Amino acid sequence: MNQVLILTKNILAEQEIQQKLQALNYEVYCSSHALETFSQHRETLDFFSFFQYVILSETICESEVMELVPLLRNYSLRVIRKVEAKVTEMDHKYLEEELLNAIISNEDSVDELRECLYALKLQPNDQETKRYVQLSDKVSLIRPNALQKSVLSPEENYQFLEVLHHLSQTETKILYILIQAGNKIVTREAICHQIWNEDVNKSHLASLSSTVTRIKTKFETTSLPNKAIQTLWGKGYRINPELLDRIKKNETLHSLVSNG
């Protein structure tokens, strides 16, 4: 049996998620005292070694999460953030930086929680191994303030033009596919099929992973916060919402991608 620790400020707020996890035969321990002890004393507790997953409740504020997450990474735990419905900019940043393993929502069904936790169980959790991150299907992103900008500064405009000019034909096609999808996730298989127009094989998937990595690297030279393409493990890829907004609002940038 797998053990789950829910750190919360109000154990009554965790009844629904607790029941869903118990229906999946997880042993759930819900505690506000452990949160208080860990936050105040920050001492090494053997207590945490009994759990495979720790869920940080939405009752815990962002400033406390900022303190807790780096400390919890010292343990062999899958760190999961639970939210009501919206992911804050900081939560998403931690997900992208792989300090969180997943973000789940109160609205997730038993089936969705089962698949999420099973996927996390299969992935390695040591510090030397790449950790994949996951975002619940029921969670939506809060649009950062930067998305409200309708016009790029001349310097920013030049940065994005330079990157788009230096994208290969395949890289441009992948970016265009993701732009067309908007905020939706596109599976790796769907992208491969559109790129190569044939049955998807391991070679295609490997080539896609390498190409997406190159796209991310090229956009690192711009003012874009976070990665240009978000990788959602087991689900596919999604374009960075700010990059999507900027390209759609700038006729020159959009033309470069569309005609690439």
C-alpha geometry? elongated
Q: What is the count of β-strands?
A: 10
* Range of helix content: 40-55%
- Beta-strand percentage? 5-15%
The name CATH uses for the topology of the largest domain is: Rossmann fold
Class derived from helix and strand content:
alpha/beta
Domain OmpR/PhoB-type: 130-241
Protein name: Helix-turn-helix domain-containing protein
DNA-binding region: 130-241
Pfam families: Trans_reg_C
Describe this structure as you would to a colleague:
This is Helix-turn-helix domain-containing protein. It comes from Candidatus Enterococcus murrayae. Keywords: DNA-binding, Transcription, Transcription regulation. Residues 130-241 bind DNA. Residues 130-241 form the OmpR/PhoB-type domain. The protein has helices at residues 15-23, 33-41, 62-72, 89-96, 110-122, 154-165, 169-181, 188-196, 202-219, 241-249, 251-258, and strands at residues 3-7, 27-31, 53-56, 78-83, 86-87, 102-105, 134-135, 140-141, 229-232, 236-239. It is an alpha/beta fold and 260 residues long. Helices cover 46% and strands 15% of the residues. It folds into two domains: 3-141, Response regulator (Rossmann fold); 146-258, Winged helix-like DNA-binding domain superfamily/Winged helix DNA-binding domain (Arc Repressor Mutant, subunit A), CATH 1.10.10. Residues 143-150 have low confidence and may be disordered. The strands form three sheets. Strands 2-1-3-4-6-7 form a six-stranded parallel β-sheet, sandwiched between helices. A two-stranded parallel ribbon has the order 5-8. Strands 9-10 form a two-stranded antiparallel ribbon.
